[in-house]
Structure formats: structure tokens, C-alpha cells
């Protein structure tokens, strides 16, 4: 595989990692008011993402940084083209991050309410907007963007609900499972609409026969979504989470597959790419560093693997 | 008013704002890690209380550094797409490396530190904070290397109107970067030192007031308390600030010499020098001139020629075509002086503080070192340590803004002094802006960020002030079951389990 293709795959991997990992962070952030009845439960719900959300967000930073380094014209084109949505994404990420970090450090309940509002709005904005931006990038139409946003928002909710069910015990766990079932009423149809839009919209490939593996990814993503709902129903939370994660990963694969080889209208990967020297150097450093990064991040999930209970204070 | 102007304002506002929090994160993180190490090694529970106290401030501040940093990474593509396309091959690499090698380390291990107090072995937990602060400092290196390339581009060639990297090592060991990394990082330690001094100063005053509410003893002496728990962090911050101050001065001198070679226009503007001058004078404050000092600072030769703005302007017009190649003179001239005066004042304060709190009977050249372990008896023999004078505590509190202002001024000097270029000699700022982004769009985003940042600045200030006023959590009234206070054993694993903080969240 030559270097530009490889780096396109790296960036697809980083974005997909971001969607999978921050997906449940966004979901938990949006669902926290629904899933908790008091402050102890609120802390329990937010505690599931507390130690990991910041590390998950770095997947986005790395994805965008890698785009800047490997495909400057793609990076610059995407961010300046979707200017105002990106401003809102950034505003959301700011509010969410500050809310999550500060809510345990403020003294008054009213200040905590502001933090909660920041977490809610700051999770919902990027969860909706990233879906809308990428759908619009593929299909350049407002209904498609809305469908994409609705899909990413509802999948984040489902993913987050399943994650809370997996990581907590007690009444919150039961509530999270019920919430997942409710959310799936929206997530499943939105998934069918948005996912079937991906392979049929490829800028260079069209038709069922021309992109069989894109259709394969999209259909498998739908199937995993349905499976996640069934598994949640049956109380298999670990498998349900694996299914939502797989569904998001396959969506990412289909999305970037459809963006290949022209990630922006009129711009091919080859035109956007940095020189072979830069790509080569980054490849070596990335190959050496990535195992460590994945290793210690996995370790941090291992350290916090236990289900959380609501602390009685 | 063009989109370009607002885009510049936006970059200035968001970057200066971001850099109010980052240096405090860099310096305070190491300070907190040092406190926790002290707790680990001595088992003294006051170090744990201090770790938690300063750790919480560190985290409040860290959040702001992180969220405002995301804007920085996106902003190049949003407002400066022409710049991004031109430089991405070279400039993008350190940014990608920063995320991969530094941000993952910082954020993952900080999460482990915050939530891992009762989940990780003590030694491993201590390692997590060190890993996180190493990440912070590493990120400073990468972003400063990228920034240095804008001022002194190396290791590249221009092919088809785009910079192509030819030598990553040259980019990462750019002489400009090697001078500015220690300058900015040490400056961060001065900021953190100044911050800790202000906090300690406040606490010392508060302690004396509450110990003696009727003011029967003059404030300056204190009410004959046992040695204040704020003495040690204050001394540590004094040492940190003084040492960092020396590094700042040395690396600043080096940067000045590099300016002479690499960015003569910025040097000329910093002194307001109009014509090429042999034996150029330096004016520390407007109106006072020290003959030959500028030439000496720039080259080590008091008679050397320092270039002047007008002569450079003529030269650049011939080289690059017609245009104004002079940066904003008043801003550059003034920020140079503000940086030096305010920065040096903070460092001077730390040296003064070290002298005021020196040990009563000097035991050799160790003055200025934090008190070594297991010295309790010897110190008692030498008499109680000098109390921090109340006026000095007040001074520390008043001096809090100085290092922050010095840092901002330094960045104004550095980046406004670079104008009209984004990449010195290669790309003009006016040619860097996104062509497809309208004035309205930039105005909207500038308004959103300014408003959000303004609100958050107030919130952060209130939060930190409240937290500082509340002070550390009180020491437990029940003495520990096993004697741990003697210290000096170096084995903290089984000691001091009684005050285990669970969540800092």
C-alpha cells in the first residue's frame, strides 16, 4: 500500500476511534439528567466517563493534527468549508470539558447546574454536528445533513446508555437499559436512512455493484445496531456495548470508504497529500508510538473496569 | 474592516487567552508532582494536604488550558486555510506529534491520577502525575518547535507553491526552537512560582489573622505559632522561580542574539531603531539609554552594527517587492520592555524572598534549597526558622499579575514582531487567510469565542479564589495509628494511609 492510501486509512482509523470512544462520552453527557435522580446518582453516571473522556477527546485532536500533517488541503478545506458548524462544535467541546472538570469543584448547587447545562449542551452539539457535517460532505444536501446529525446524535445516546448500563449497578443501570430501548426507537430508523445514504453517495463510486463493500459495511452497521438493542433487552450489556461500538466503527469505515479517493469535492487524496518524506517520517514515529498509546489507554480502562455504585454522602 | 483583520484579532484573542492557562498548567503540574513526591518520600501528611490543595487548583486551571487548546488546532484550518495548505507538510508534523506523543500521555495519565488515588498502588499513582506533567512539557516543546519554524523556517524547500519538509530533525532542532523552548517553559515556571507565592502569601496572612483575631501581636511577627505549613511550599516556589528566572534570562539573551541573525526587523522594532547603527544603545525604559548595550546584547560585541527598520524596509522592498515590512512599532517596543521589567520583578521578588526566609544559621551554601529530610533536630538547635514577613506576603499577593503580563507581552513581541509575515520571508499574513470565509463568519466566531472566554475567565477566577480562600482540608484530629511523622525513611508505601483522598473530581 502506498503512503497516501496508508495515511488516509490512518486518519479514517483515528476519526473512527474518536466516534467510538467519544460517542459514549457524548451519550453519557446528554443522558446524565435522564439517568440520575439525585446528586449521588449524577456523580455515578458522570463517573463512568470521568477518568477517560479527556483521553478519548485526544483521538479527535490527533485525527485533526494528522490531517493537517498528512493532507493539509483536506484539513484546511474541511474546516474552512464547514466554518460555523465547527465553531459550534468547538464551543460545545469547551462547555463540556469545563463542565465535566469543574462540576466536582464548585460549592453551590446552582453552579453545579451550570456545569450540568454545559455538559448537556456541549455533548449534544458535537454529537449532532459531526454527523451533519460528514453527511453534508457526502451528499451536499440539507435533509441528508439532518438525517446524518439525527443518526449520530441518537447513536451516541444509545452507545452512552449501553455504556452506563455496562458500567454501573443499581437503579441507574436499570434506567440506562430502559433508556437504551427508548432511544433505539429513533436510532434504528435514523440508522437505516443515514447508513443507506453513505454507499449511494460516494463521490467517485456509485451504484450497488460499484461499491459492494461499502454496502457491506453499511448493512453490517445496521445489523449491529439492531443486535445491540436485542442484546440490551436480554441484559447482555457487554455484548450490547461491543455491538454499538462495532456499528459505529463500521459506519466510520463506510464513511471514509465513500470519501475515498476524493475527501472533498474536487480534491483528491493525492492532490491533498504531503510529500513522501513527511509521510514516511510520520509513519515511523506513529508505528513506534501508537502501540504505547493504545497500551496505556487500554490500561486506564482496565484500572477503572469495575461497575460504579452511587456513593451515599 | 476585512475578514483578515478579524481573523488576526481572533487568533490574538484566543491564543493569548489560551496562554494564560497553559504556563500555569506546565509549572503548577510539576510543583504538584513535587509535593506528592515529598509526601511519598517523607510520609508527612501536610504534603498530602498541600498536594490536594494545589492539585485541585491545577485541575481547575488544566480544564481551561485543554478546552481552549482545541480551538487553536482547528483555527489554522478555519481562518488560515492558505497558510495551512502552504505549511501543512512541515508545520503539521509537530502538531500531529504533539497530539500523539504528548496529549495522549497528559490526558490519560491525568485521568488515572484524578480517579486513581484509591485504585492504584501509591508508587504507581505518583508515577501517573509525573507522566502527565511530562506530557504537558513535551507538548510545549512540539508546539514551540512549530511556532519557531514560522519565524525561522528550516529543513524545507518550496515546491509548487507549498513548503515541503526535507529534514524533520532540522525542524525539531531549529536554533530558534532550542532557544525559545527553555525561555517559554522556564517562563511558565516563573508564572507558576508567582502564583504559588501569591497563594502562600494569602494563606500566611490569613493564618496570622485567625490565630490572633484581636491583633495583640504585630502582624509582621505572627502569633508565635508553630512553623507555618505554608513556609515549605513558599520556599519551594521561591527556589523554583529563582532558578527558572535564571533560565529565562539566559535563554532570552540567546533569543536576542538569534533575532539579530534571523529576524533583524523584530530586533530593530523592539528597540525602535530606525537606521543601521554601530554600537547601538539600549533603553530599558523610554528616555534612558545605555550606550552600546543593544549591540552587545545582540552580538557580544559592543561596536557591532544592529540593523535599523528603515534600512531593512528598503532591503526587503528590493527583495520581496513593494510593501510595508515593518511590524507595529509601539506594540513591539512596549511589549519588549513590559516583558523584561515585569518578568525580572517577579524573579527579583523570589530572590528577595529567599534571603528573607533564609535559615538563621547558615549551614554552608545550601541556602535556597528546600529543607532536607530528617533535619528536625538540627533545625531546632539552630533556632526556629525565620518567619515570612507580613509585608512580603502582601507583596507576593500584589505581584500575582506581573508574570502573566510578562508572558503575554513576550508573545506580543514575538508574534506581532513577526508581522507582516506568517512564515518569515516566505508567506505574508495577508496571503494566509481563508479566501472562502466571509467577514460575517469570522465576526460570529470571534463573538462566540470572546463571549464564552470572557464568561469562563470570570468563572475560573471566582472558582480559584473561592478554593484558595477555603484553604486545604483540615488535618485529621485523630493521630495516625502508626508513627509516620518522623520521615526520612523513604518508604511511604505503608505509611500515611489515614488521609487517603478518594476523589478530586
From TrEMBL, chain A:
Lineage: superkingdom: Bacteria
InterPro entries the UniProt entry points to: Cyt-d_oxidase_su2
Membrane topology classification: Multi-pass membrane protein
Localisation per UniProt entry: Cell membrane
Any one GO cellular component localisation term in the record: plasma membrane
Gene Ontology terms describing biological process: aerobic electron transport chain
This protein's record includes keyword Iron: yes
Molecular function GO terms recorded: electron transfer activity; metal ion binding; oxidoreductase activity, acting on diphenols and related substances as donors, oxygen as acceptor
UniProt keyword list: Cell membrane, Electron transport, Heme, Iron, Membrane, Metal-binding, Transmembrane, Transmembrane helix, Transport
Listed transmembrane segments: 6-35, 82-102, 114-133, 145-166, 178-201, 213-233, 240-262, 282-304
Entry keyword annotation includes Nuclease: no
PANTHER family reported in the protein's UniProt record: CYTOCHROME BD-I UBIQUINOL OXIDASE SUBUNIT 2, CYTOCHROME BD2 SUBUNIT II
Family per record: Belongs to the cytochrome ubiquinol oxidase subunit 2 family.
Protein name as it appears in the record: Putative cytochrome D ubiquinol oxydase CydB
UniProtKB/TrEMBL annotation, chain B:
GO cellular component: cytochrome complex; plasma membrane
UniProt keyword list: Cell membrane, Electron transport, Heme, Iron, Membrane, Metal-binding, Transmembrane, Transmembrane helix, Transport
GO BP annotation list: aerobic electron transport chain
Region feature (Disordered): 362-381, 472-493
PANTHER family: CYTOCHROME BD UBIQUINOL OXIDASE SUBUNIT 1 (PTHR30365:SF15), CYTOCHROME D UBIQUINOL OXIDASE (PTHR30365)
Domain of life from the UniProt record: Bacteria
Family label: Belongs to the cytochrome ubiquinol oxidase subunit 1 family.
First and last residue of the signal peptide: none
InterPro entries tied to this protein: Cyt-d_ubiquinol_oxidase_su_1 (IPR002585)
Location within or outside the cell: Cell membrane
Encoding gene (name): cydA_1
Main location: membrane
Protein source organism: Planobispora siamensis
Protein name: Cytochrome ubiquinol oxidase subunit I
